[in-house]
Design brief:
6 helices; Rossmann fold; two-stranded parallel sheet; 150 residues; alpha+beta; two-stranded antiparallel sheet
Amino acid sequence: MMKSNIFLQALRVGPALREEIEHRKRVEEIIDFLEIQHVRKTPGGTAALRPAEARGPRAARSPLEPTVLLLDEPMAGMNVEEKQDMSRFILDVNDEFGTTIVLIEHDMGVVMDLSDRVVVLDYGKKIADGTPDEVRASQAVIDAYLGVKH
């Protein structure tokens, strides 16, 4: 978002020019980080990303730095190699930008490998909350997985 006044933006002078240069630099960093150089010169909103790029962190096309990123089943339909790539990107986004990532995913291997904290819901009811090891050992999670009713 540009903070300088509209007149300076239109003339591209002074603070507006400096601000635009900073924004362009940040966008270039994000393009390089996300490895989507092929869309660099494509007008916004018209860039065609490959299916694996259109998910999760790679889909970020904005210079904004959100503090929380919500990923709703970003690995659905992916093969093992694509899941590994996406997992690396998720970890990189967290490491590089300090972004908190809320991941909704049914692949428990992925969830347990990526997460510091796991919350397990069973039909909308929270049945476990803790570290991956705590959740793995939770009797409520084991029962839900096995279909044991209480």
